[in-house]
Protein 1
Amino acid sequence: MFYEDKSDFIRVRAFVSGRVQHVGFRSWACEQAERLGLTGTVENLPDGRVEIIFQGKPELVAEMKEKLKRGSPLSIVSKVIFYNERVKPEETFFGTAW
């Protein structure tokens, strides 16, 4: 089995506020992350925010951060907070946390 060298990867946790629940934001975020080849999770939070954790090559993570600031077609993003995290080399896909 092929294992990608993840030594240059970075991992980010993002909290997105605004109209981001019940507008297809999680599905859109999954699609964007998968297109960029990122791994991680996305989850609706009880307070109305969406939490997205993603990792990959720095330039692709930067692209995802910009996408999250703009949001999905039906969302209205008012605020995004990013935190750096420790990379999880064992992570192999992007999915929705239920």
Protein 2
Amino acid sequence: MNTPFEIRAWKLRLPLTSPYRLSFGPVSSFETVFIQIDSLEGQGGLGEATFLTGYTDEVFEESWSFLEQWITRQQSLEQFDQSLTKLADSRPFLTSALRSALDMAASLPVLRSDRALRVPVLGLLQGDNKNQLQQNVRSLLEQGYRTLKLKVGFEPSRDAQFVNDVAALCEAMPEAAGLQSELRLRVDANQGFSSDQAISFLKELQPASVSLIELFEQPCSAKDWAAHTRVVPHANDCGIRLMLDESIYGEADIRRAGDLQLASFIKVKLMKFDGLEALMRAIALIKQLGMTPVLGNGVASDLNCWMEACVADLCIDNAGEMNGYLKQRTSPLIEPLAFADGHLCAPAGWRPAFNMDALDALQEGQIRVSIER
């Protein structure tokens, strides 16, 4: 006799401790769909899709409405699995949440919890003036961060001055001066520049800034590969290495970037891929093509950050970007994911479990269905 398994989904907004400022607008809460899959044998798995307008074409409200209809049409585990594969191209975020829950329920080896997890992550540096920047740089260094992320993509001259100010602070501060061999800046435009603006920004960076910049991320619109291509030679002339993020949605995009030599780094996120194994294949391909993979999502809760950290622990040798869980006001988990000395941490045996009271308090919708094996 077939044993049914239950799928639950929650629609909710997770408030942040402070607005996350991006080139396409501030983010005050995560618009999230959580998935939980359980069987009568006690096996369970969790998944997450957190939507960000301007980053993905998938829209939070519409995606939830679609999920309500789609999930009720699944009559068996086999059909569910086949339908997910077909859904991956058009709705990668939703697909990733559902597939990740299946991966966890299947006890995929990468998610094993028999050892402690400790993965370095970057710190987001923001500030409205030099005094704030100095205080925030000092605070991040004291917390153990050695890679700092700077958001640009607003106005080229002002952005370049911001980066130059940070570099000057890092040179002058005693706390930073002793970390020159470790300290790195990642500069992220989040698609905010035209090619001319990106080139202008690069020309205004001072040598001290260039020496600290690990990479310059996604200067132009995700779909405007021609604009990005125009920036490449100017970045090379400046000694700045480029990273693509929003332009990358699968292996075809990775191959395109590698074949055309458009980036030194490629950033990937679990939410863009059909599960953890697909994510690890993408990372392997990036390395095979001579580029460096960067992994992590700054717009995600503990759950997705933990899954990415498990992959990073095996496949990545630079600071992870899975720091979204540090931005949220309240964790959706019973035992929140930890942070210590610049690292995402989880003790051996740690396994995520939803705090149902927290989900019920925040949820704007809920789905519960049973499907036969």
